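[job 0417] fold request received: Cd(2+)-exporting ATPase
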Amino acid sequence: MDAQVNFGAAKITVVGNTTVEALEKAGAFDNLKLRDEKAQKVEREPFWKQKENIKVYISALLLIVSWLLGEQLGEGHIVPTIGYAASILIGGYSLFIKGFKNLSRFKFDMNTLMTIAIIGAALIGEWGEGATVVILFAISEALERYSMDKARQSIESLMDIAPKEALIRRGNQELMISVDDIQVGDIMIVKPGQKLAMDGIVVKGTSTLNQAAITGESVPVTKTIDDEVFAGTLNEEGLLEVKVTKLVEDTTLSKIIHLVEEAQAERAPSQAFVDKFAKYYTPAIVVLAFLIAIVPPLFGGDWSEWIYQGLSVLVVGCPCALVVSTPVSVVTAIGNAARNGVLIKGGIHLEEAGALKVIAFDKTGTLTKGVPAVTEIVTFGGNENELLTITAALEKGSQHPLASAIMKKAEANGLNYNEVSVEDFQSITGKGIKAKVKDEMYYVGSPSMFEEILPNGIDKTISEQISTLQTQGKTVMILGTVNALLCLIAVADQVRKTSKEVIQKLHQLGIEKTVMLTGDNQRTAEAIGKEVGVSDIKADLLPEDKLNYIKQLREKYHSVAMVGDGVNDAPALAASTVGVAMGGAGTDTALETADIALMSDDLSKLPFTMKLSRKALRTIKQNITFSLVVKAIALLLVVPGWLTLWIAIFADMGATLLVTLNSLRLLKVKE
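[job 0417] inference complete; emitting structure tokens
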């Protein structure tokens, strides 16, 4: 039997025959609990109430009380010592179990390192120091658990996008059926305002679908007979009958979920330097201390003097400064980032952001606002405000997002379009609308509609004007009658004011390449890409294409960030070295899948994040180097026999203090 655990997705895949009880027994050491994927969601305890975190609170409280008692009764007094010991046991209980288990297998990792460090500190009477190290380690473990919880919730929120059941017609019967029981070939009926539960092909009806959840397109797409539709998209206006083409586990949305899970499983954090170093460092220090205490007395040395030297080596070797060097820098930098509206989900993401070479951006809602707005109105002989009032009055009856852009423009110009009397309103599916105002029939719609209804089609000079606007990435709507065009209204998703400046700053900071990825067409993409100044543009991409492109970039440049806001960005966010989500407008999924979230929905925080993470990476390297150099110098004092317990404690605690103060400088990094 073979079992694979994906902690990021909270999934276990088992090949062979077994029971839930047997699996839970085998995973008891890691506290594994199992439930069926399709079973009801289990309500999780709030993070601050979780059992492991309550132990951290108790341990921290005991440490503070013991320190206060030590100040009054004297450090060596039995009462504070018992308090420190209790703090060590409560906070470090699970750590010690892992540490001893690893020791028995001669596996030296962070847990082993910490166990030896804490027991070493206690043996030499440094109980307070041991307890402090336990607390620091427990806090970093809690932060890691928190980010894993968030990763799991992200996948669960993805699963909730598509409905769990759908209205299916079989023969003459219409039934609500669970998605698990829907077969390929079933006819699914989708009413206006409903989300699609399955992928399929339209067999009857025409409607506009908001596909933002899947493709990231800002403007809903018209779908009619023989067009492909996706689970999780929203049907906006017409009744559709859809022939199901895929089972629930094969839908585009399921694929996105699967890609996110895979990307999270692939990206186990690279083993930290301290972990690798500890594998050799910890046993070497233990052996060295043992040899110093034993060998010289065998050749006539003074036992008490050399045991004292051996214990001093153990204290110097106690890797407190080394262990603290990274977490303090990380916590400080993350705290500073949070104050400035940037959520960084863990130390590994902070370090990786510091080493970035390439940043890829989603277009819609990231580099642009994601909301269409009127950019130009070109009139052919009439009064602009009058024509805009008529257009807005007609569009009031439409469900199209471009309609809201026209109505907003009319409101901004102070036009009272609500008082215009509109009669015989009719939607011309996929093309536009028509209605009567003051007994005159007006049409609003796409250029292709007017090519059909005008006796001689659209005039060549006007066609050229329309093409020019479209080349600039704008959608053109026309107001006219059966005899003439009255005005053109250009609508576009507008670039955020900060986008261009942010791209410039990133290039100045040393980012080698900035790329824009979008599901939009090449023309719109090029217009916006040139405006913001990215070095590369990739258009017409589905979520899978974005993911594959990010993988290619990682192969070439190793460190790649993805900045996005939609569900369609989730696989690419998970596959990049660092996923950055736009906070305010970003979907929950993008936020949860990402490693860094810009909470104010403002790209201008990105250069600050890069600057901070680079400084943090430098600080961590300085801290590790400094703590190792101090230890090396102190250990050399053993040769002439000058190493005393005081020098050892000073070297260890002094290094720890200086490393901490150096890390606190990260609070000063400003935008």
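[job 0417] notes: Confidence is low (pLDDT under 50) at residues 266-271. Residues 127-159 form the longest helix (33 residues).
[job 0417] exit 0
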